[in-house]
Amino acid sequence: MIAMAEAADETLQRRIEKLERINAALMAHVERSMDQQGGAYSLFQTAIMLEGRVRSRTEELTGLMRRLERSNEALVAAKEEAENANRSKTRFLAAASHDLLQPLNAARLSVSALTDLPLTPDAVAIAGQVERGLQTIEDLIKTLLDISKLDAGIVRPVVKPAALRDLFGGLVASFKPFAERKGLRLTLRGSGLVVTTDVVLLQRILQNLVSNAIRYTESGGVLIAARRRGGTCRIEVVDTGRGIGEGERDLVFEEFYRGGGGKSAVGAAAGEGGRGEEPGLGLGLSIVRRMAQALGHPLELASRPGHGTRMALTLPIGTEQAAEEIRVAPIATRLSGARILIVENDQSTADALQRLLRNWDAEVAAYRDLAAVAAGVGAGSVAPDLLILDYHLDDGACGLDVAAYLRNIAQAALPVIVTTADYSPEIEREVAGIGAELVHKPIKPAQLRSLLTYMLT
């Protein structure tokens, strides 16, 4: 019985141990299950948190993108507004310039006609002062208009090869008398190169630089030099003026800036002129910089106060065979007996132009519009040798219509000079299209006389 009991006890013990092992295994399984369930929950919680963060960052990024879009739209609108303002400014200045240049044109022609009459020395001096004042006004109006066009991007350079020889020769011929009156040397070096540029704009740049250099140099001289550097040409205008202080070297390029005692000889037409010369307008380097930028020609300034200033312009080298010639106007002679027909709707300009031409011994007939010309033809007026026509006539009429009418009657290409205060390229193309010459107002009497002589002979 004991043995049986012991055996039963061992069996029970074994069952208990087995149950304990099963229980331990079950507990381990449960614990592992709980751990897995806990990890999944943790991952689930982390996923929810990350999703929230992603959503938050996405919303934040979306907001930034929308603000950036609005900012870009605002920038585009501001740019368009600025461009419209520039175009409006240019149109306004063009219209205002036309209206201002008309009476200025009449005044200059009248003064020129006056100086051709016998006058006392005092009257001649006064007429000269009036002429210089009118020239200053004209320069200011034209320069402001040029600056406005450059700022608005209207000026489109016509880039082609051009020989520096003629350009430099013209500069020396124009400015040497001015330099000699001040006791200055005007020296030229290296003019045999050919460059690629817009001749008209380059000429304007160099005229400004040389004029300012001579105007504000009190002793010594001015050098115009061209040097080849690889595939480029470096044109320099060097003076022995007062030089520019470090603090003024950016300011000299600003409009209407006029420096003090340290102002350069080639500064922006600023400062006090030497030896009684009139000061400039303070626009010289401002327009030089704009033109150089329009051409893509780097402009450099170097200066030592008390020793002078060097302005340098870098241009690409051009091809000799394609170089553009720069023509010099012929010397004027008298116009005795030439029959000239004028069509001008501004009465003061017409009167002044008639007086000037008659002083040059020309026979003049003046009309206001095409109808008046047709009436004169019907009355048997003498056929003209040359026409001087204002482009803009009353009621939107155009002077080119008068040219077409008279050429049709004459069955010949009568020589025509078209005058206007409008500098738009469209008018230039129209005038060139009929083979006429364009003269911008205010008309320079010497230029007109030279052109008349050339066309009539």
UniProtKB/TrEMBL annotation:
<dbReference type="Pfam" id="PF02518">
    <property type="entry name" value="HATPase_c"/>
</dbReference>
<dbReference type="Pfam" id="PF00512">
    <property type="entry name" value="HisKA"/>
</dbReference>
<keyword id="KW-0175">Coiled coil</keyword>
<keyword id="KW-0597">Phosphoprotein</keyword>
<dbReference type="InterPro" id="IPR005467">
    <property type="entry name" value="His_kinase_dom"/>
</dbReference>
<dbReference type="InterPro" id="IPR003661">
    <property type="entry name" value="HisK_dim/P_dom"/>
</dbReference>
<dbReference type="Pfam" id="PF00072">
    <property type="entry name" value="Response_reg"/>
</dbReference>
<dbReference type="InterPro" id="IPR036890">
    <property type="entry name" value="HATPase_C_sf"/>
</dbReference>
<dbReference type="InterPro" id="IPR036097">
    <property type="entry name" value="HisK_dim/P_sf"/>
</dbReference>
<keyword id="KW-0808">Transferase</keyword>
<dbReference type="InterPro" id="IPR011006">
    <property type="entry name" value="CheY-like_superfamily"/>
</dbReference>
<feature type="modified residue" description="4-aspartylphosphate">
    <location>
        <position position="390"/>
    </location>
</feature>
<feature type="coiled-coil region">
    <location>
        <begin position="61"/>
        <end position="88"/>
    </location>
</feature>
<dbReference type="InterPro" id="IPR003594">
    <property type="entry name" value="HATPase_dom"/>
</dbReference>
<keyword id="KW-0902">Two-component regulatory system</keyword>
<keyword id="KW-0418">Kinase</keyword>
<feature type="domain" description="Response regulatory">
    <location>
        <begin position="339"/>
        <end position="456"/>
    </location>
</feature>
<dbReference type="InterPro" id="IPR050736">
    <property type="entry name" value="Sensor_HK_Regulatory"/>
</dbReference>
<dbReference type="GO" id="GO:0000155">
    <property type="term" value="F:phosphorelay sensor kinase activity"/>
</dbReference>
<feature type="coiled-coil region">
    <location>
        <begin position="2"/>
        <end position="36"/>
    </location>
</feature>
<protein>
    <recommendedName>
        <fullName>histidine kinase</fullName>
        <ecNumber>2.7.13.3</ecNumber>
    </recommendedName>
</protein>
<feature type="domain" description="Histidine kinase">
    <location>
        <begin position="95"/>
        <end position="319"/>
    </location>
</feature>
<dbReference type="InterPro" id="IPR001789">
    <property type="entry name" value="Sig_transdc_resp-reg_receiver"/>
</dbReference>
<dbReference type="InterPro" id="IPR004358">
    <property type="entry name" value="Sig_transdc_His_kin-like_C"/>
</dbReference>
